[in-house]
Amino acid sequence: MPTSINLAELNGNNGFVLKGNRYDQTGYSVSNAGDVNGDGFDDVIIGAADAPRGASYVVFGGSSLTPSLELDNLDGTNGFILQGVIFGDDAGWSVSSAGDVNGDGLDDVIIGAPFANRDLSLDVGKTYVLFGNDSFAPSLRLSSLDGNNGFVFQGTDAGDVAGLSVSDAGDVNGDGFDDFLIGAQGGDPNGDRDAGETYIIFGGNSFAPTARLDSLDGSNGFVINGINANDLSGTSISGAGDVNGDGLDDVIINGSYVVFGRNSFASSLDLDSLDGTNGFTIEGSGRSVSDAGDVNGDGFDDVIIGAPNVDVIIRSWESDAGESYVVFGRSSFAPSLDLDNLDGTNGFTLSGIYRGDRSGTSVSSAGDFNGDGFDDILIGAPDADLNRNTKAAGESYLVFGGNDFDSTLELNRLNGSNGFAITGIAAQNYTGRSVSGAGDVNRDGLADIIIGAAGGFNGGGDSYVLFGSQSINTIERVINGTSGRDNIRGQANPEIINALAGNDSVVGLAGSDTINGDAGQDSLFGNDGSDVITGGDGNDLILGQAGDDWLQGNNGQDKIYANNGNDQLFGGNGMDTLFGGAGQDSMLGGEDNDILRGQAGADTLFGETGQDSLLGNNGNDILTGGNGTDSLFGNAGDDVLAGDAGNDILFGNNDHDSLFGGQGNDTLWGGSGNDVFELSPGVNMGVDRVKDYLDGADKFKLGDRFGFGSLEFSELNIAQNGNNAVISIARNNQVLAIVENVNAGQLNDNDFIVE
């Protein structure tokens, strides 16, 4: 299976795209809809809150679907549109399946309009439930819901924005009807401003056309109250499945909190009353929440929590790379669970890749996408850049379930066997702003997924349905070598080749192969296809060739060549040499003193520990030294160089580069072009020596890399010391940089960029 799939490849056989109207931002919210029209195919629902009055689209599943469908062409036979009521209500801000709320055997849908008013109360919010039916007109106004075809719930107070989030809940109270959730992050329970509220509405066989959320009394539903002012509880809500295995469905609320289902409830529940018997608190973080299905196959449903603003520091300091957390279900829980304690047996962490990706902005169960018997999960990173230079194209990640997880899985290590990346197409598409399982849209027995890209199609928004497939991770055969010296040549189909001990030579040929060198000094060649190659022990030679390859040396002094494609290279232990190639490559040196060469393309190089040498070569590259005394050379292109810890040498060379020494006494050369030298306060920062500052061309940037607060120019002291200018912080005399052969009087506020 490829390590990534680009959504431009959808052709009607593997999935399809749904296109919105310009400026509507269709796909801001997406969800499975269940089987709304009872034809045996699961349907999807897509929100377009920026459409006039807001709009939502229900698209019917089927066995023969075109590669592309404009949502304006829904005609009642292939789907229909739900029109909002009043301009500014933003109907479609949130959408979801509601399950079968009225018990008629057809699935229903729910639409949030959080900025709807009630009388003179602004932004109270309204939520609409539309009942399933075996036939629909091409268009339906939400104002026409009359209790027979659906109903509306009105928020309670001004500013509650009820309906900002909506979700199905399963059968929380065990009465045989599906229930649903409405989030009101602006609610003020117990007088705590914006603590937030979540409402659970019980299903039943009859509903009034209109009801108010403050009418819930425990028999028809109840409210869950946030704890502290500004908690904004209810920003993200979801059914959780049956987390504790008691036969009743549970719910999850951002913050994060799991509330267990039971047969009876009072009219309200305070989240600070959760004690392990009625639910539990998940300590750590959590902006987006969802059920995850049964990821590890133990019979308990699991949950997933997204934290897009978390900084990831596994490779380097990647601010806002984001993390997501899977918490496994079990029969009993303590009152609280700390996400820092996930160890692979009780759940695991999924780490984002690059700074600003915001992975975990959206999370969802994917169902069993690849048909292996384990439920899979889906994570959206809408701000991720395609190939590092197509800004905010967005990425999503499908992670396969299984019965063996480490405590952490880095999303850049998805290799086709454990999951894959799904890449957006164009800049500012924000693919992955919303993600969801889609049910079985084409009724092939495999679960499908839907991904929203609200910025696609000239701001109209695109939504992509990707069909499940068993062939995504199909391996044609397994080849095992011997303990001696083997010469193994693969075939044209995907294979697993285990060379075992000895000094082996392996050629993978065509197909996306997995090649393991194991012990010995091996020569491993991937050839065509997106290959996963691991050297093992010994001094190995690894060549990826064509395709997007994942290449790892492990122990020994390895030489790794990426060649064509967007490859990922990992040196491991030992003094390794990594060469990029023609694509957009990512390289991690690992332990000891490594050499990393980027070659063509916009590459990302990280030395990690040891005294490393990094050369970006052509393209707009990102170089990070890591620990140790490193040498970084940007060469051609607009490069970003960061020394990290140690006394490093940074040389931008040609074009317009950005240089940050990090901790230690660093030496910085901008080279030709208009360069930016970043200065940041911090502990053990050392003193940077800027060798070639050119007044009028280069700039200094006052950053905040370590959370000590950014500086203003007025806080600096710039003094002359011999031929050099010395830049320091006036309040504590911390010297930030010595600028060689520059007169201090030449430096003024025009030379500084304030972050």
Written overview of the protein:
This protein is an all-beta fold and 755 residues long. It has four domains: 1-20 and 284-474, Integrin alpha, N-terminal (Methylamine Dehydrogenase, Chain H), CATH 2.130.10; 26-238 and 253-280, Integrin alpha, N-terminal (Methylamine Dehydrogenase, Chain H), CATH 2.130.10; 475-687 and 695-704, no CATH class; 688-694 and 705-755, no CATH class. The chain has no helices and 64 strands.
Write a compact overview of the structure shown.
The chain is mainly beta and 755 residues long.
Count of separate DSSP helical elements: 0
Radius of gyration over all CA atoms, rounded = 28 Å
Strand order of the largest sheet: 37-39-41-43-45-47-49-51-53-55-57-59-63-62-61
In round numbers, the mean pLDDT is 91
Topology summary:
Layout: E1 4-6, E2 15-19, E3 29-34, E4 43-48, E5 55-59, E6 68-70, E7 79-83, E8 94-99, E9 108-113, E10 126-130, E11 139-141, E12 150-154, E13 165-170, E14 179-184, E15 197-201, E16 210-212, E17 221-225, E18 237-241, E19 250-253, E20 257-259, E21 268-270, E22 279-283, E23 288-293, E24 302-307, E25 323-327, E26 336-338, E27 347-351, E28 362-367, E29 376-381, E30 395-399, E31 408-410, E32 419-423, E33 431-439, E34 448-453, E35 462-466, E36 477-480, E37 487-489, E38 495-498, E39 505-507, E40 514-516, E41 523-525, E42 532-534, E43 541-543, E44 550-552, E45 559-563, E46 568-570, E47 577-581, E48 586-588, E49 595-597, E50 604-606, E51 613-615, E52 622-624, E53 631-633, E54 640-642, E55 649-651, E56 658-660, E57 667-669, E58 676-679, E59 688-690, E60 699-702, E61 716-721, E62 724-729, E63 735-739, E64 752-754
Parallel strand pairs: 1-32, 2-6, 7-11, 12-16, 17-21, 22-26, 27-31, 36-38, 37-39, 38-40, 39-41, 40-42, 41-43, 42-44, 43-45, 44-46, 45-47, 46-48, 47-49, 48-50, 49-51, 50-52, 51-53, 52-54, 53-55, 54-56, 55-57, 56-58, 57-59, 58-60, 59-63, 60-64
Antiparallel strand pairs: 2-35, 3-4, 4-5, 5-7, 8-9, 9-10, 10-12, 13-14, 14-15, 15-17, 18-19, 19-20, 20-22, 23-24, 24-25, 25-27, 28-29, 29-30, 30-32, 33-34, 34-35, 61-62, 62-63
